[in-house]
From TrEMBL:
Xref: InterPro entries: GH, NAGLU, NAGLU_tim-barrel
Signal peptide: 1-20
Species name: Clathrus columnatus
PANTHER family xrefs: ALPHA-N-ACETYLGLUCOSAMINIDASE
Protein name: Alpha-N-acetylglucosaminidase tim-barrel domain-containing protein
Alphabetically ordered keywords of this record: Signal
Domain of life: Eukaryota
Pfam name, any one: NAGLU
Domain Alpha-N-acetylglucosaminidase tim-barrel: 110-365
Lineage, uppermost ranks: Eukaryota, Fungi, Dikarya, Basidiomycota, Agaricomycotina
Length: 365
């Protein structure tokens, strides 16, 4: 990840930045945040940005004082989650704070946001920004590309709808745990609306100096793809959480099949065309609470190698981000040999980020 150290002379707010945006637009994003959340103080803030060379995160005593006030600002109001900043009754003072832009803070945004509108997203993104989150998941709009890609391959609406689950179930549908009508058929209008919403979300993330983590093609496909491509190398995922086979056991296209790369390229190219060159980090989980069809180390290696190659072919700077949750939840399957085989499919040591979820209780790293 890009390493850059920033000194920011600020009043009250702590905001993080990434290298990719110009200095002016980074500051515009912070001023816009102040305007949104502390409108009575919009003329009181003066942000400056300078580059330094330190490699560590330093927070000075005066900065802590700033933090305390941010805390106060965050938790005031009726909600226990969102910022509800009020005009500060204090005399504002100039304080200095250093923020390292390479801090990686990630938040998983899947279960609760299926019906958020942009106002709610805007509030959430400002809240993330105030907490220093600079690498948020940006899953919204995924299904727009899924549908486009499968249509391009010759699948009809029925075959595609048979694969997609309702909005509130997308978290599991996207990971290949479930398929089909969970909570009803996924309305195409929802897909279109989410795509419009995501354009605003991505733009706002970039304004706030964040790098969105975008989705990629995982390998899970409508069952009917095999009818259109009878030679495709496909396997069935395992049943998830004892739900009926017809609603789980998603079809998985083996990533070493050339068709996989073709789909990945189409998915990622369409995404870049829609959002611009805003990120090279892709979230991609294949065996979340389900097992690969074979435990043979060579197979596992081939799966991840094919997946990574497809990402790099579509985006030469691609970084693969995955959750480590699978290793924790299925320890009988994921022996050290198999973990090693799967992870070693990705060359080098800075091409993959593994989220050690739940590491406060069961650290895996
Ligand atoms: C959609 O495609 C599938 C698979 O090719 C086919 O079986 C089905 O009849 C098609 N449905 C429609 C409505 O065209
Ligand atoms: C996208 O960004 C990467 C580096 O972040 C750069 O190498 C590449 O040329 C950019 N592509 C376009 C089309 O701007
Ligand atoms: C793994 O990939 C290699 C090279 O493409 C191939 O020869 C081999 O049969 C594959 N093995 C498995 C188990 O998929």
């Amino acid at each position: 990840m890009a390493r850059m150290f920033l000194h920011i002379a600020i009043v009250i707010l702590c905001v993080t930045f990434v290298k990719s945006t110009s200095q002016d637009s980074r500051l515009n994003g912070i001023y816009a945040l102040v305007e949104r959340r502390l409108p009575f103080h919009r003329d009181t803030f003066n942000f400056q940005l300078t580059e330094g060379d330190s490699d560590s995160f330093i927070i000075s005593d005066s900065a802590r004082e700033v933090s305390n006030r941010i805390w106060w600002c965050r938790y005031i109001g009726p909600g226990h989650v969102f910022i509800n900043c009020r005009p500060l009754p204090l005399q504002l003072e100039i304080l200095e704070l250093e923020v390292q832009s390479s801090l990686i803070d990630i938040i998983s945004i899947l279960y609760t946001t299926a019906f958020y509108d942009f106002e709610q997203w805007s509030l959430l993104l400002d809240w993330l920004s105030l907490r220093g989150v600079n690498l948020p998941l940006a899953w919204v709009g995924n299904e727009h590309f899924i549908v486009e890609v499968f249509k391009e391959l010759g699948l009809n609406d029925t075959s595609i709808s048979d694969f997609l689950s309702g909005p509130a179930f997308q978290a599991w549908n996207r990971f290949g745990n479930i398929q089909g009508s969970w909570g009803g058929t996924l309305p195409y209008q929802w897909i279109a609306d989410q795509f419009s919403l995501q354009k605003k979300i991505v733009q706002r993330m970039v304004e706030l100096g964040m790098t969105p983590i975008l989705p990629a093609f995982t390998g899970y496909i409508p069952r009917d793809l095999s009818l259109v491509y009878p030679d495709a190398s496909v396997v069935k995922a395992t049943q998830w959480s004892s739900f009926p086979s017809s609603l789980t056991e998603d079809t998985f296209l083996n990533p070493f099949d050339p068709l996989y790369s073709k789909i990945q390229n189409s998915f990622i190219s369409k995404q870049i065309e829609a959002y611009g060159n805003v990120s090279h980090v892709y979230t991609l989980d294949q065996f979340n609470e389900i097992l690969p069809s074979s435990g043979e180390p060579e197979y596992l290696h081939n799966v991840s190698a094919g997946t990574f190659q497809s990402l790099r072919a579509a985006d030469p700077s691609a970084v693969w981000l995955m959750q480590g949750w699978l290793f924790l939840i299925s320890p009988d399957f994921w022996t050290l040999d198999r973990i090693s085989a799967y992870l070693d499919g990705v060359p080098g040591d800075d091409n993959m980020i593994i989220l050690d979820l739940f590491s406060e209780a069961f650290p895996l790293w």
